[in-house]
Amino acid sequence: MSEVYANRRSRLRDHFNAAGTAAALVTRPANVRYLAAAAPHGAVLLLGGNEDLLVCAVPPDDRPFEGRPDEALRVQVLPARGGDTAVTAADLARSQGADSLAVEEHHLTVARHRAIAAVAPALRLADVGCAVEQLRVVKDEEEISCLRIGAEIADQALGELLESILVGRTERHLALELERRLVDHGADGPAFPTSVATGPNSGRRGHRPTDRRVEEGDFLSVCLGATYRGYRCEIGRTFVIGTSPADWQIQLYDLVFSAQRAGREALAPGAAYRDVDRAARHVLDSAGYAEALPPLTGHGVGLEIDEDPQLSPAAMGKLDACVPVTVEPGVHLPGRGGVRIDDTLVVRPEADGGPELLTITTKELLAL
């Protein structure tokens, strides 16, 4: 695996060298982990002219779920607590003879940027931009395998919850139980705060669980995800509590399901981001729900739960193969509730079977 990380660093080095910069400082934790195999708290990565260094505030932990630094990297720990790893790394770049340093301006605070400039005033600071984030968009099969295992864990946790008694339990209680089950089945932890929404709260994107109790006749919408070896997946499903869904619930569910299917079917190498969004959005627009729709239909996943690409009406760019994304249309009707269906898939060419569905919990409207 060491050569995988070395290759990633080499690609980034080609990028900033081509822009005329001698060294680069990576500070965003997900980007550090992508390039170094681990991102201990506060660590930064210096890609220098002589060698690459992982600069840590404390010695790296040996816990597997936090990752172990690439053995080809030299790890340097700050001599005393309270120092700034980024400032130390900039000083190291200067001592290595670098005359310029590319930094992640979109991640650094103004104060930190000034501190870097102060410790090494002879260094010309440049912006590496979102070069690492762009490298992260297309995943290798090892990364996809981690996402696949995370999806299996999320499916398992959700499936077990559905077999339990739900009526009378609070949204908050159910969310906590789901997160416990994720860890019990081998996840590093939840990929994001688990959302459980009942009744009038259902279908609301990003709903924070409350003390509202599940009642007969409610829509119950659940959105959760597992983190496995740093990689994060997402699944969302909507169910009905009771034995006989109301007509309006069946109609709304069927509509959102049709929109989600249209979005999934639009996933293909070369498809424009906005066209995938349009495929799902058109179904709901045509039914008169334009004002009830979220700002995007899906997004990339990986070391972060919300990364490029963004599947939205104004998004620019086209999908590549081996890009994992969510497709998650939903409709929320104020005071009544709504439906959200969310899957994680990997873009694959038609010759390889088309989009690979990672989250396989049934999308049938179940009455629980």
Automatic annotation (TrEMBL):
CDD domains recorded: APP-like
Residue ranges of every copy of the Creatinase N-terminal domain listed in the record: 8-138
Cited Gene3D superfamilies: Creatinase/methionine aminopeptidase superfamily (3.90.230.10), Creatinase/prolidase N-terminal domain (3.40.350.10)
Top-rank taxon: Bacteria
Pfam family, one: Creatinase_N
Identification of the protein by name: Peptidase M24 family protein
Peptidase M24 domain ranges (all copies): 146-348
Segments for region (Disordered): 189-211
Cross-referenced InterPro entries: Creatin/AminoP/Spt16_N, Creatinase/aminopeptidase-like, Creatinase_N, Pept_M24, Peptidase_M24B
